[in-house]
Write a structure and sequence with these properties.
It is a single chain. The protein has about 270 residues and is an alpha/beta fold. The protein contains five helices and 16 strands. It has a seven-stranded mixed beta sheet, with no helix packed on it. A hairpin with a 4-residue loop joins strand 8 and strand 9. Helix 4 runs antiparallel to helix 5. The chain is globular, with a radius of gyration of 18 Å.
């Protein structure tokens, strides 16, 4: 029996199941997409609880992990799966895993919501094991799950290997961390605000071909119109909109349900 204290499971139409982790401020979401032969596992969460065991109870298909990117909160259980794919630019992060000295800092009281940590999870000892990918996700790839395909679009900016997956037949999109209702982080050393501009434009175009967007954090699902709104908001930043807040490490541009955090001097025409 898989302990569900850490996870919430929601089944959506079109063979999509969301596994969320609301006990943490990241509120990360992973998804299962059912084909006739395989189930795509879109990210593997934070590494708390028996994620792989939960997947096995939710689908009897052969799992294949498809990573939106390789940040710690998306690769937690990847080493427990035989088939794992990621963009080549983030394969090193997947192989490295996440050591305890970094991991435990995410489980201090300010990051936790409620009392949902499993009794078997010890933040002072836990770490994310490294994982060797068995293949890579590349622009233009078509992932065949059996009578269902996912199209791969490279959408960097938040991170160099950001991937958006689209099921054109079902009219659904999975943009990873490229868009969601919350702060969009593009100020880290590995972020690229210029590439992010092109990615937002592309995601807005793809959003005209879908009815539902399933993001990797916070409110889900999202309406496709939000993708267009975020693209237009980002263009206003590049056209000269002033930041709402200036921090030492980033400028913050606040909009309705989302914000962009950008390095000073890294944006604008």
């Amino acid at each position: 029996m898989v302990e569900l204290s850490w996870f919430d499971v929601v089944r959506f139409p079109s063979g999509v199941t969301m596994i969320s982790e609301p006990g943490h401020s990241e509120d990360v979401k992973s998804y299962l997409v059912e084909g006739a032969r395989d189930v795509a596992v879109l990210d593997t969460g934070m590494g708390v609880g028996d994620f792989a065991g939960l997947v096995a109870t939710l689908s009897d298909r052969n799992p294949i992990v498809l990573h939106s990117h390789a940040h710690f909160d998306h690769i937690g259980a990847s080493a427990q799966f035989a088939r794992v794919r990621v963009h080549a630019s983030e394969a090193g992060a997947l192989r490295a895993g996440y050591p305890n000295e970094r991991f435990r800092a995410w489980f201090t009281p300010e990051h936790l919501v409620g009392n949902r940590l499993p009794a078997t999870f010890d933040p002072q000892r836990a770490a994310i094991a490294g994982c060797e990918p068995d293949g890579f996700l590349t622009e233009g790839d078509v992932i065949d799950l059996g009578e269902r395909v996912l199209h791969v679009y490279h959408t960097p900016g938040h991170s160099p290997g950001g991937i958006t997956l689209v099921d054109h037949a079902a009219r659904i999109m999975f943009p990873g961390d490229a868009i969601y209702a919350g702060p969009m982080f593009a100020y880290r050393d590995y972020s690229d605000p210029v590439a992010y501009r092109a990615s937002l434009r592309r995601i807005a175009e793809l959003a005209t071909q879908v009815d539902v967007i399933y993001p990797s954090h916070n409110r889900s699902p999202l309406e496709p119109e939000l993708a267009q709104a975020m693209h237009e908001a980002y263009e206003r930043i590049w056209a000269g909109r002033a930041p709402d807040e200036r921090r030492p490490e980033c400028d913050v541009f606040q909009f309705d349900s989302y914000a962009f955090w950008l390095r000073p001097g890294s944006y604008g025409n």
